[in-house]
Design brief:
Radius of gyration: 14 Å
Strand content: 25-35%
Shape: flat
Helix content: 25-40%
Length: 101
């Protein structure tokens, strides 16, 4: 079962955010994180949208996600994202279509 890290981001300081971007791909790959989507202009279908970016990263297991998110490498760059933006992030547990209900 896969786990999906979903982040809704409103970038406030592009230069500070870029410090995060410069390193996050390398750290994510080390922990088997696979980018599924990154969109700065999603199509709003319902509700209100107050973000500038959406990111979805897939991890094969919750352990791989935890190893990535709580790693020293990720925590050292996470501060750039948090200082440069307002974020809402969630972890979603995937289900197979056969077990949807």
């Amino acid at each position: 079962m896969s786990y999906y890290f979903v982040s809704y981001i409103k970038i406030i300081d592009k230069d500070e955010y870029q410090k995060y971007v410069n390193e996050v791909d390398i750290v994510s790959a080390k922990y088997n994180g696979k980018y599924l989507a990154l969109d700065d202009h999603p199509k709003l279908l319902e509700g209100n949208w107050n973000y500038t970016r959406t990111v979805i990263i897939e991890f094969r297991t919750e352990k791989e996600f935890n190893d990535w998110y709580y790693s020293k490498e990720y925590q050292s760059i996470l501060r750039h994202r948090l200082n440069a933006s307002s974020c809402d992030t969630i972890l979603i547990k995937g289900k197979s279509p056969l077990n949807i209900y």
